[in-house]
Amino acid sequence: MYCFRTLDEPSGLTFTSTVRPGEVRVVTLVGDVDAATVGTLDEALATGERLVVDLTRVAFLSCAGVRSLLEANTRAALAVVVGGHAVTRSLEATGADLLLDIHPRVGAAIADLTPVPEPGREA
């Protein structure tokens, strides 16, 4: 007797992007980040001076994905939101967790990147 299992999950990587007050851009990724999909991650991180990268719906993060995050971190203020063990493990194994601003929730990451108006000035 043979047992077959099929997965009806979409393959690849997708993202959505929204701009929040303070010009903080939130990029939410869904899927796996690997050598085949890292171009989508690069596209998602291509613009913005303040970026929140929500990886809570990413099941796998390869070294190529870690490298993409580190490159984006050199040109923009970047906050990374992690939720899954696999993503956390990839960041820890590469040492990227020591270089990136890691948050447990999107709200905390947004607050961290939102500019605080100077006293006497409007936002």
From TrEMBL:
Domain STAS spans what residues? 24-113
- Which CDD domains does the record cross-reference, listed alphabetically? STAS_anti-anti-sigma_factors
Q: Which Pfam families match?
A: STAS (PF01740)
What highest taxon heads this organism's lineage? Bacteria
Indicate what this protein is called per its UniProt record.
Anti-anti-sigma factor
- Natural source organism: Amycolatopsis pretoriensis
